[in-house]
Amino acid sequence: GTRLQDLCRHGAGGVHGGPIRAALVSNMQIDVEWFLAEFPDLIRCAQLIVCYQSEKRDDSLEQEVVRVRGGRANLLIRRPPLPIKYGTHHSKFFILVFDDKLRVIIHTANMTQEQMFKTQGAWWQDFRFKGPASPPSCRFEEDLLDYLGHYDVPRETEVWANMLRQMRRTDFSDARCLGLVASVPGYHRGANVNKYGHMKVRSLLEGREFDSCFESSPLVYQ
C-alpha cells in the first residue's frame, strides 16, 4: 500500500521535485513524537503551517516543532476557531510546495501511529504552476481557498500569505476529481447551503449523468 510518509517526500511517485519549500498540514489529532519521527522533511521545510484541533489543550506540539526547527521563524501552529460549540475542523490533508509543482494529499487518518496501521483512504495529485495558456482560476482552486478562509488566519501572517500565493499561482484545472467537498463547522444558509458537506455532495451528483448500471449501486463513503 501507499504510505503518507512516502507521499510527503520529494521523490514520491518517481517524480523528483526537489526539497519541500512550504507545507500546510491539517489534521484532527497529531501524536507529537510520532509526527516528528515520521515526517522529518516536513518538519524542517523552509515554511511550515500546522493546523489541528486535538482534544488535548496543551502546547507540546508547538514546543517540540520549535525545538526541532531551532526557532519560530516561518512557522505557524494554529487551532482553527469554531463558530459554534458543536463540530470541529476534521479535515486531514497536506499541501506541499516544491520548486516545480504543488502536491495536494487528502486522506482519512489522524496523525497517530495506531491509525497508520489501519485501512485508510488517500487521494493525491501533483499540479503544475500556471502558464500563459492556464485559466486564471477554476472551481477546485476557489473551493480550496474558500475552505482555508474558515481557518481565520490573519492575512498579514506572512507564512500563511505565502502559502495562499503559492496556491493562487497553481493550475488546478486538471484536478482528477468530481469536485472538492469541504466540511465546515457551523450553520450554512442561503447561498452557502450547498457549499459544504453532504449538501455539496448532493449538488455535485445532481449535475452528473450515470449509466443505468449504477441505478442500484451501493454508496460507499467514510
UniProtKB/TrEMBL annotation:
The active site is at residue 90. GO terms for biological process: DNA repair. Substrate binds at residue 92. SUPFAM superfamilies: Phospholipase D/nuclease (SSF56024). It is found in: Nucleus. This is Uncharacterized protein. The keyword rRNA-binding does not apply. Belongs to the tyrosyl-DNA phosphodiesterase family. One of its GO terms (cellular component) is nucleus. Keywords: DNA damage, DNA repair, Exonuclease, Hydrolase, Nuclease, Nucleus. InterPro entries: Tdp1. The keyword DNA damage applies. GO terms for molecular function: 3'-tyrosyl-DNA phosphodiesterase activity; double-stranded DNA binding; exonuclease activity; single-stranded DNA binding. CDD domains: PLDc_Tdp1_1.
